[in-house]
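Think of the structure tokens as a kind of shorthand, similar to the way a musician reads notation: each symbol stands for something richer, in this case the local conformation of the backbone. In the example below we present two proteins back to back. Begin with the first one, reading the sequence and then the tokens, and try to describe in your own words what changes along the chain.
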Amino acid sequence: MMNKEQKKNYISEMETQFQNNEAVIVTHYQGLTMTQLDELRGQMREHGIKFTITKNKITKIALEKTKCKELSNLFTGATAVAFSDDAIMSARILSKFAKTNENLKLLGGIMGSDVLDQAGVQNVANLPTLDEARANIIGILAAPASKFISILLARSEKMSNLTPENS
């Protein structure tokens, strides 16, 4: 049991987490072993994502004063929350983990100011990361330039192969 001071600290910390993170994803983890939870936390930590098991009743109190108050109805049962600034990476890690561990259920979340349901979280998980999107754009931009250069090089080779007796 938490005493009154611990509850105040918990509420304050959770309010800060809900307000200061760009992405909040709510999950149910009932049935996962401690080893599985530690593995998931480790994967999340590698990407700067905080994965926290919540105390639902006082978490709902913390939610009341934040941009995430619409998520209040998701806090029933064995609930854990992923807090991060990269919604795509956190959704991707949770989605991938849920595919191999059926006891992890994605419930919904918030990305920026958009409330996401379970399908919304899955859609976010399928988006390219910022680095992948940049690589795709660079590939698109670089492709025409490299083709143009190869055409010019091919033309110059043909011209250099022409000798006075061949023309």
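Once you have a description of the first chain, move to the second and do the same.
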Amino acid sequence: MKKISKKVKIIALLLAIIIIVGAIVTLTIGLNFNLRYQETKKIQLYLEKDFEISDIKKITDEVLPNQDVIIQKVEVYEDSVSIISTDITEEQKINLIDKINEKYEIELSADNTEITTIPHTRGRDIIRPYVVPFIIATVIILVYMAIRYRKLGMIKTIVKTAFLLVIAQAVLLSVIAIIRIPIGRVTIPLVLVVYVLSLLGVTNYFEKGLKEKKKEEE
């Protein structure tokens, strides 16, 4: 039976600490979601004319300082603007409309403009479309690994591969939670990158083991 080196023990301990701390942060503070996935407030204004998002951004920077804001053109003719932020008070709404009226020489009414609430998107709803393809791909990979490295033991190969893939994702999610990386559009690609790198690592490990096995047989 191979002895576990001191270096491997230290790495395993560090990974365990990262996963435990990540789990504690997730359960207590929660994950840091990108503005698009948080509960937000939105107002939509019909300007009736063309406008530049950069000009609206200057106004929102004045009225909503130190707040993340999403500004989008809407409607077919892109003559309406949607302003989304973590919070928009009635006073801020009035100030936004006053400044936009002044900028574009229009007469929008604050009384006729509603502040709507966009509910928080749950993490499970973000990953749901990827779960089935992810599982199918993993099963196919595990079957391939078991066949390819059957001389190393099929069950052993499957268990080690699945374990390393799970640990890699657990470490990634823990790091995301600990250093507060926003959950957003880059999260799934990041998960896939780590998944592929994990597969490359475990494949390289088994390839070395297979070469050693062949040498022993020879």
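Compare your description with these statements about the second chain. Residues 164 and 199 are 9 Å apart (CA to CA).
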